Batch of 3 targets.
Target 1
Amino acid sequence: MKQIIQFHVYKGDTYYIAEGIDVPVVTQAKNLDELAKNIKEAVELQLEDKNLADFSLNPAPSVQINLELGSLSYA
């Protein structure tokens, strides 16, 4: 059983987008603080009244966010 729900986060044209790797959840927000709140709410809604074992998840999973930095500039 997994203890961590993973999300891939990247910056679109105007919004940050989070795509669930372990759960079928996608959400977006204008900033990372708002995105973290949206991820929490979306995961709670997705898993509400569901058996977490069906998703191979432990009863109290954590969320891990992998942030894509895009192109880096070197000085």
Note: The domain at 2-67 is CATH 3.30.2390.10 (TTHA1013/TTHA0281-like).
Target 2
Amino acid sequence: MIRRYDERLHEQKKMFGGEGEALFHRILNGPDEMYGKGRVFSHLVLEKDCEIGWHVHHGDGETYCILKGRGEYNDNGTIVEVAAGDVTFTDDGEGHALKCVSDEPLEAIALILYK
């Protein structure tokens, strides 16, 4: 299978009460395309001061691979700066948030797999 960029799902939405909106370019379209092992595999873009608000994972875990920009990552209540090349992981039962703090957009790959 080859899915061209213009055939991919693209959605912009407010996430967990965070400021602004997150833009998702779906790489795979949910559980059916992930053999039922996950629900999100997307290229995520956050403009300056936009964020994915605090949320806790239940029954799954999420990884962000930061591609561009800089962000503030809330890792279970501890705020740390993340930048291109960094990888974060939030396990089942843990919480996180991500905010773009650079003038350029923060871009990341987001992957959510079921436990």
Note: Residues 14-114 form a domain with the Jelly Rolls fold (CATH 2.60.120.10).
Target 3
Amino acid sequence: MGKFVINTDKAGKQRFNLLASNGQVILSSQGYSSKAACDNGIESVRKNSQDDSMFDRKTAKDGSPYFSLKASNGQVIGDSQMYSSESAMENGIASVRTNAPKATVEDKS
């Protein structure tokens, strides 16, 4: 099963990564000013990851595919890593869908 890992960045903001069951990061959040806001971000991932229209499929300047997960207000909750192909990106999206709803939370902040 996947898990959300919360850390504090150098600027003092809370961030989370969603890890797949193999430990690979599949989604990284923005920085949040409080633990409560970070927790709300995690709940937003759980909810919005089940709606395909919330995934914004993108291409980086170097041609690498990646995706962003948006909240219902259109704000980006988190971004994926860069992928080697569109099919690998789609597998990443499927992994977020599978792992997010039941992922545990590990607070390392």
Note: The chain has a mean pLDDT of 96.
